[in-house]
């Protein structure tokens, strides 16, 4: 396939989509610019022009993937402003799992996340502020409110909030990782109802854990 000019915006999109496939298949370190350019029908100079280097391309792929996922499944699930913290936690977990296991995304979306989770590259710190931090802050607010709700007379400490938040996210990420790399039934073909049931299980487990920790804050 003949490579197109580096300044072609269509080339930029093709590079991102091809890179998503290659990074998802091989991981950041093993993926090669040569293979990405081959699939995209582009030249190495196009990568340099649009992204600077391999790390820049990887960050762009994650930014592209994250924005697409958040638009389809926002972390607040479109709930009304008066929703309870329990309702918001359930919605957060469900949307998190749908972003990794649901349909409507490029085929490489879920596996890309699992690859980075299993073997972190460090590149994501460059996009964390805009792509991840707002989501973390949203979940932190929910957890803090739940802890305070369970024990209104006791001040909530930051460490308890952080540990609860990490536990919730960890359960969600494990599901994405396990279904990509471990022997589980129907790893990629979950129905929306199955994802909802899985989310509800994580929600109940997490809520019980938060309440147990709140009871100890005396």
How do you describe this structure in short?
With 218 residues, the chain is mainly alpha-helical. The protein is built from ten helices and no strands.
General description of the model:
35% of the residues are buried. By secondary structure, the protein is mainly alpha-helical. 69% of the residues lie in helices and 0% in strands.
**The number of domains:** 2
Helix content: 55-70%
Tertiary shape = elongated
Oligomer: single chain
Structural class: mainly alpha
Which series of helices and strands comes N to C?
Answer: HHHHHHHHHH
CATH level 1 class label of the largest domain: Mainly Alpha
Name a few traits of the molecule.
2 domains, single chain, 218 residues, Arc Repressor Mutant, subunit A, mainly alpha, Tetracycline Repressor, domain 2, disordered N terminus
Topology:
Blueprint (H helix, E strand, L loop, with lengths): L8 H18 L6 H8 L3 H8 L2 H19 L12 H17 L7 H10 L9 H4 L1 H18 L7 H24 L10 H25 L2
């Amino acid at each position: 396939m003949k490579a197109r000019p580096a300044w072609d915006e269509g080339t930029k999109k093709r590079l991102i989509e091809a890179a998503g496939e290659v990074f998802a298949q091989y991981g950041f370190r093993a993926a090669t610019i040569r293979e990405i350019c081959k699939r995209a029908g582009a030249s190495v100079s196009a990568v340099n022009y649009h992204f600077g280097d391999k790390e820049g391309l990887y960050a762009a792929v994650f930014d592209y993937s994250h924005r697409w996922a958040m638009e389809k499944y926002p972390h607040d699930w479109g709930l009304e402003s008066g929703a309870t913290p329990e309702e918001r936690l359930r919605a957060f977990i469900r949307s998190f799992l749908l972003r990794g296991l649901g349909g409507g995304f490029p085929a490489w979306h879920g596996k890309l996340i699992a690859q980075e989770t299993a073997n972190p590259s460090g590149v994501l710190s460059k996009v964390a502020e805009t792509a991840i931090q707002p989501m973390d802050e949203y979940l932190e607010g929910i957890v803090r409110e739940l802890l305070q709700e369970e024990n209104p007379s006791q001040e909530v400490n930051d460490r308890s909030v952080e540990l609860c938040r990490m536990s919730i996210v960890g359960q969600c990420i494990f599901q994405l990782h396990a279904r990509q790399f471990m022997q589980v039934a129907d790893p990629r073909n979950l129905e929306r109802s199955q994802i909802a049931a899985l989310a509800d299980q994580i929600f109940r487990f997490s809520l019980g854990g938060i309440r147990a920790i709140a009871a100890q804050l005396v």
